[in-house]
Amino acid sequence: MKHINALVAICTIFVVASDVTASTKSGKDAKGPPTNRPTTTGQLPNILIFLVDDLGYNQVGYNAELTGNNEIETPHIDEHANSGIIVNRGYMTPWCAPSRSALQTGRTNSFNQNVSNDVWSFDDSIGFVGGMPPGTVTLAKALKDLSRNRNYGEYKTSYVGKWGIGGTAWANTPMGMGYDEFLGFWGDSLESCDGWDAFTTSPLPREFQPSVLTKAVPGYWQQTNSSVDNVVCPYIREQSDLLTAEEIHIACKSTPKTPPKLIDLDIMEETVRIIVSHDYAARPLYHMHALQLMHLPMQYPNAYDDPDEAGKEKKPATNTDLRLSTRNAMRFVDDVFGNITQAIKDAGQWHNTIILFSSDNGGAVYMNTANNNFPLRGSKFNAFEGGIRVPQFLSGGWIENSLPKGQNFKSNTYVFALDWAPTLLEMAGGPGSKKYLLGDWKGASYGNELWKYIKNSISDPNKPSQLERYVSYSLDLYFQVTKSTTTKMMYTGDSGVSYQIV
Question: What distance in Å separates the CA atoms of residue 139 and residue 484, rounded to the nearest whole number?
Fold first, then answer.
């Protein structure tokens, strides 16, 4: 992983849009037994969610090779997908924010009407707060409740990278949604190539005013429960007539940072730090790593545009520089994943860790992008398969230890964005654990525990185990899942309803 150490980023705004086709070569990173800090017997599993932004279906090697594409090189991703369970029917929503809210709440985005990509929308006259409603129960909060009720050490919860589902109220920033610490940005993306600095450490009465945080959303932030407050905390405490005690606490623990030259490198280093420094004997870790790539701006270390380690020129992409750069950015993402998984092994926690790898939606195919969803129709922002069916797999030693040895596993169980939080709770705490997230609520707008279905499907991917149900994404998109067929129903304006067997 020598390229990952390069600190110089290539910052490019691309002007050519292209469709891509793809395949791969496999590779491996080190595997081995736990090396230090063994987990206490009976400890709850660690959970890592690795979320790539706008990653196309055909941009991981294990999918690309099925289409004859020899351009994609994701050896670390491929190894862990092939040693875990490939979730071949993993569905997110058509764009970023609704997927991220469903993923963390177990509820369809119809319950989060304020969740759009424009999370900084705010209207004082109607009290509109962009993003998830404050007070929403999230996976982070539910895991804490689960561990407390099972008399284990309470989960430490941390988040780095793109938040994208709040920031105009302190209560719907990550710390307000159950995370103990955070480093990243609250908005849709963060452009660091143009040299724009978010905020300095000088007094910020305007930006920290409790009614409107809109100017803060594009910035780069750190939140931590340290004993040190930020420099404007005395001013914030004067707003006790406008802010609750919780909001004051969060505001005082939130510090604006100057954006780094390369965001995904910075947040990778933060994730590695969290993993290797955590006290696993005291409590388990739940961590979410949300990259900016493959979202624009396309920023990655320029070493990935150099000849490969063997001295040979890398295989050229078959059309434009945009396509080549997109492919090289994905090589960087693969190394980020490899470094993080290696950190888990170095911490002696591989055997007790669950990893969920996913994109937040289908690959974006518009100006300045060259993401690839082939052979699926459509892309980000629409409900065709290319917009919502994503690369997704489960990995980690906890997964490997639950599977027969020496085989590759693929599950064709339908798993939707809102199913993952209940399913991860089920994996951590056993059947029925989704109650910590959803209580007694059930129906088309709520997720389900699907671990036993996923596991039962791997014996014969052609005869998957399905939970029969309706799944509502919104008023104009829902699914009917049966044991034999799954039908997607889309309202298409004047033409009525489109029924598609998927």
Answer: 31
φ and ψ of 451, to 5 deg = -60, -45
Distance CA 272, CA 274 (A): 5
Residues 264-304: tens digit of each pLDDT? 999 999 999 999 999 999 999 999 999 999 998 888 998 88
Strand pairing partners for 66?
Answer: none
Q: What is the dihedral of CA 277, 280, 281, 282, to 10 degrees?
A: 90
Instruction: Kindly report the backbone phi and psi dihedral angles of residue 292, in degrees, each rounded to the nearest multiple of 5, phi listed first.
Output: -80, -40
* Residues contacting 129, CB < 8 A, separation 6+: 114, 122, 166, 168, 169, 172
**Six token digits for residue 68:** 């004859």
Helix, strand, or coil (residue 20) = coil
How many residues can be counted in the chain? 502
Residue linked to tokens 């209560």: 171
CA 51 – CA 295 distance, rounded (Å): 12
Q: Residue 491: helix, strand or coil by DSSP?
A: strand
CA distance 416 to 403: 23
Distance CA 132, CA 156 (A): 22
Residues in a beta bridge with 394: 85, 356
The 10s digit of each residue's pLDDT in 351-360 is 999 999 999 9
What does the block give as tokens for 419?
Answer: 């199913």
The Cβ of residue 375 has, within 10 Å, a number of other Cβ atoms equal to: 13
From CA 476, how far away is CA 473, in angstroms rounded? 8
Q: Provide the whole-model pTM.
A: 0.86
Residue 52 · residue 291 · CB < 8 Å: yes
Angle at CA of residue 406, ends 402 and 409, nearest 5°: 60
Give the tens place of pLDDT for each residue, 223-235. 999 889 988 899 8
**Cβ-based neighbour number of residue 432 at 10 Å:** 10
Q: What is the DSSP string of 105-132?
A: HSB-GGG-TT-SS-TT-EETTTTEESSS
Q: Give Cα separations from 385 to 17, 119, 134 (angstroms).
A: 20, 26, 32
C-alpha neighbours within 13 Å on the C-beta side of residue 500: 13
Helix, strand, or coil here: 335? helix
Report the distance separating Cα 341 and Cα 349, nearest Å. Answer: 10
Residue 446: strand, helix, or coil: strand
Whole-angstrom CA distances from 376 to 216, 373, 393 are: 38, 6, 18
Nearest to 97 by CA among 81, 125, 121: 121
71: helix, coil or strand? coil
Task: Give all strands (DSSP E) within 323-476, no chain letters.
Answer: 353-359, 392-395, 409-411, 415-416, 469-474
